[in-house]
Amino acid sequence: MSQISIKGVKKSYGKSQVVHGVDVEIEAGEFVVILGPSGCGKSTLLRMIAGLEGISAGEISIGGKVVNDLEPRERGCAMVFQNYALYPHMTVRQNIGYSLKVARVPKAERDARVMAVAKSVGLETFLDRRPGELSGGQRQRVAMARAMVREPKVFLFDEPFSNLDAKLRVAMRAEVRRLHRDLGVTSVFVTHDQIEAMTLADKLIIMNAGNVEQVGRPTEVYNNPASRFVADFIGSPAMNLFDGEFDAEGQFLYGKGGRMAVPLLNGVRSPGRKVVLGVRPESVRRIGADAHGAIPAVVDYVEELGASRLIHAEANGSRFVAVDTDMTEITSGMPVHLSIDGTALHLFSAEDGRRITH
Predict the structure, then answer these.
(1) Is the CB of residue 107 less than 8 Å from the CB of residue 50?
(2) CATH assignment at residue 9
(3) E strands of 27-115, at which residues?
(4) Does some domain include residue 356?
(5) What pLDDT score was predicted for residue 219?
(6) Do 199 and 286 have their domain in common?
(7) 309 φ/ψ sector (left φ>0, alpha ψ -120 to 50, else beta)
(8) How many C-beta atoms lie closer than 10 Å to residue 132's C-beta?
């Protein structure tokens, strides 16, 4: 296991800078997920760790050794790619053991290591097949086994499940988590899928436009997003966000005449202050029309999820999403009344989007 230290790392292509000074510490044995939208720089950062991309400034250390000038093969990393990158003319056994053959590992030892790794990912009965005879999930397992057989200090995963169907993605997430538990190797996993990130990670690195927005445990990032971007990006469905300001009485004014009491935000309710108020859909519920604090709304549409459903509604010109477990009939155009949990509010600056602590 090896610690990874990233200090002031930048990446430019000509005059265009795509990674803007990343500072992150990845502890030995951690499973870290780099999460962000397409084009945010997450794969570029991973490739710089691997040595597949040069860095424009800063320093990367693996196991306490600066690797800026080391070739990929000298860094002790094994990488699993999105497109599998298997040799089509080789069998599964040959694909898994190829790096050992190149390293001139004796055949008996090579065969033993290949069989051990194949068993760990459930491929022992497929060793004599070629990639074209395998399913997408099996090919991804071959790619993982090929990385594992090298016994690396660091595993790097570049969106490895993007080509798999939804059911198989769930199965492969469980497989990767189990392997990490058994092997304990430091792992860095890149994805744009926040559910994938939340279920896999010991620690999340949220990136946006080449910058790190937040680093923290999944529950920490979910419960205390550091910025409006993180609040909007993490969570399915996304957090309800309302642009507005406080009045002289400390009420939050939003949309077209909407007013919301927010008593727990003492100390930050400056009159006229432009802010963004956030609340998760699970903290918005449907209540009776005569209940205290009820917000009249009209249902736009409903997403049925089985044990619960999502109500998409409009109130005071603003969009609300609520998680509803009351399975009584509800249809588009129907009037409802919503209540917001005042203890579960988030506040962000309207100027820079950063979290306002209250």
Answers:
(1) no
(2) 3.40.50.300
(3) 31-35, 57-62, 65-66, 77-80
(4) no
(5) 95
(6) no
(7) beta
(8) 9
Residues 6+ apart with CB under 8 A from 219: none
Phi, psi of 211 (to 5 degrees): -115, 155
Number of domains in the chain: 2
**Long-range pairs, 117-124, Cβ under 8 A, ≥24:** 117/145, 117/148, 117/149, 118/92, 118/93, 118/145, 120/145, 120/148, 120/179, 120/182, 121/145, 121/148, 121/175, 121/179, 123/92, 123/96
Instruction: Return d(Cα 164, Cα 41) in angstroms, integer.
Output: 23
* 229, 262, 289 - which closes a domain: 229
The structure's pTM equals 0.88
Q: Are strands 211-216 and 284-287 parallel, antiparallel or unpaired?
A: unpaired
Are residues 185 and 242 located together in one domain of the fold? Answer: no
- The residue with tokens 């890149």 is 190
163 burial type by CB count under 10 A (0-12 exposed, 13-18 middle, 19+ buried): middle
Q: Which of 176, 194, 229 is the last residue of a domain?
A: 229
Task: List residues bridging with 287 in a β-sheet.
Answer: 337
Query: What is the rounded distance in angstroms from the CA atom of residue 186 to the CA atom of residue 200?
Result: 13
Task: Tell me what the mean pLDDT of segment 306-334 comes to.
Answer: 90
Tally DSSP H helices, then E strands, for the chain: 8, 20
State both tokens at 353.
């989007």
Q: With 70 as the cut, is the pLDDT of residue 1 above it?
A: no
Same domain, residue pair 168 and 79: yes
- Predicted confidence at residue 358, as pLDDT, reads 66
Give the span between the Cα atoms of 264 and 249, in whole angstroms: 13
Question: How large is the average pLDDT for residues 160-172?
Answer: 82
Domain of residue 267 covers 237-349
pLDDT at 138: 87
Q: Are residues 310 and 179 in the same domain?
A: no
Per-residue pLDDT tens over the stretch 244-291: 998 888 889 999 988 888 877 767 778 888 899 999 999 999 888 777
Q: Give the model's pLDDT for residue 192.
A: 92
Q: Are residues 168 and 248 in the same domain?
A: no
Spatial distance between the Cα atoms of 114 and 112, rounded to a whole number of angstroms? 6
